[in-house]
Amino acid sequence: MSDIILHHYETSPYSEKVRLGLGFKGLTWASVEIPMIMPKLDVTALTGGYRKTPVLQIGADIYCDSQRIMRELERRHPTPSFYPAGRGTADALAWWAEKTMFSPVAGLLFARKPEVLPKGFLEDRAKFSGRNIDPAAMAAAVPNLLDQLRAHLHWLDQMLANRRAFLQGAAVSLADFAAYHPVWFLQRNFGSTAAPLDEFPKLLSWAERVAAIGHGDPRPVTSQDALAVARAAMASAIAVADPQDPVGRRPGQRVAVTPDDTGRDPVVGELVASGADEIVIKRSDPAVGEVCVHFPRAGFAVTSA
Ligand SMILES: N[C@@H](CCC(=O)N[C@@H](CS)C(=O)NCC(=O)O)C(=O)O
């Protein structure tokens, strides 16, 4: 089995970002199809409670959030790079694009095509988001969702002026994968030229170029196989103190790491290493043995536990 295991489901936009990243780097990977709604017992055994999709596993190292996953793919497989024009700008563009566009495209699906959602989905996502998902309010929000999407899609379209092939220039970067997945979600649910995409021809050609990158070579495996891999492996993270930590956190402390937007399930463990962009905690569970769980810092709260 490939050492790269992606826990995901087909219709997940953030997973599409990672699948394209795997394809761009020409990788063979093990694919575990996970449930779209809770419970997700095998995923949460690996992560310690984090329930979002996707999750990447390499042995007993578990990477949560596509931001952290893409960074790890880049670290382990630097060529071709997600950062042909340098870091920083690509990360910031990626953050802006997916944070602003994911929620409106999901809202459009909830409001306009509730019949395609599996049973229990809206109730699950109400808990996930901490908001009451009311069909009448969702329908009333549609005009604003379209206005907001249109404004951001317009910016993307303008970035592609002067025959620019990708958002940062001639080469694809992390920003393209992050901006593409909400567009992919709109296209697969509402058609490839659905409004407001239809007024942006440059954007539509760009989306074709990104889609053509493909997903590499996924090989289906079961979640039980993935848990067995974690049990048999030793996590690779080693303890490193961060001399710049703003509040003096040290390896060995017990901390809770919690997403600050949706799916706010805390993961508790022993701090192993941390820095400006990542935090690693160690925890164990009978189903997976001892694992190191890696999170990004942007978008996550770290508190003592
Ligand atoms: N910041 C996260 C966002 C992930 C996210 O919101 N994923 C959606 C699916 S695309 C999700 O977790 N939905 C709830 C679920 O799958 O349980 C990331 O970059 O991975």
Description:
- α1 packs parallel to α3.
- The protein contains nine helices and ten strands.
- Helices cover 41% and strands 19% of the residues.
- It has two domains: 163 residues, Glutaredoxin (3-Layer(aba) Sandwich), CATH 3.40.30.110; 123 residues, Up-down Bundle (Glutathione S-transferase Yfyf (Class Pi), Chain A, domain 2), CATH 1.20.1050.
- A hairpin with a 7-residue loop joins β6 and β7.
- The model has no long low-confidence stretch (mean pLDDT 97).
- It has 305 residues and is of the alpha/beta class.
- Strands 5-2-1-3-4-9-8-7-6-10 form a ten-stranded mixed β-sheet, sandwiched between helices.
- Glutathione binds next to α1 and α3.
Q: What topology does this entry show?
A:
Elements: E1 5-8, H1 13-24, E2 28-33, H2 41-47, E3 55-58, E4 61-64, H3 66-76, H4 89-112, H5 121-129, H6 135-159, H7 174-190, H8 201-211, E5 217-220, H9 223-232, E6 254-259, E7 267-274, E8 278-285, E9 289-296, E10 300-304
Parallel strand pairs: 1-2, 2-5, 4-9
Antiparallel strand pairs: 1-3, 3-4, 6-7, 6-10, 7-8, 8-9
Helix pairs in contact: 1-3, 1-7, 2-9, 4-6, 4-7
Bound molecules: glutathione.
